[in-house]
Please model this.
Amino acid sequence: MFKGTSISRGIARGPAYVLAQQALHAASIGEGDVGRELSRFREVLAEAESQLSALNKNVRESIGPSAAEIFSAHVLILKDPGFLQKISLSIEQHRVNLETALSETVEQMSQAFSKLQDPYFRERAADVRDVARRILSIIASKDGAKVLEMPEGAIVVVQCYVPAIWTP
Model:
């Protein structure tokens, strides 16, 4: 039996479809690949910002401005110079791929946020992880990741839900 928090009302019965986070393995890159990785980074950032802007607009129009604020916050994280610089420097200096640089940076930032006294700022660690999951999802889709096929009537079980492109 799984215990957790539901994101919808009511009672559901059906097969559990568990989506596990994939473990990332550090992937070294050559000096000649640094430019390509930085270019990939800029490309997925633009896509993530586009997705978040669309979400913000849809939620703002359908539910209201306060519900859309989370997406505005996620865009701010995407544009944060410190966040961007840490990932870029990791790619350049440590010669690792974008996925590794992103994962390592987000882990460091999440740990730093969780050590803060103020609960509001501690909760920002989840926002940073949400942004990272969105970026990794975009990378996976660009790399031709297999589309998930869920059984009819399945109940999706995830460790942490990240809002997708929302359509009313």
Notes: The chain has a mean pLDDT of 79.
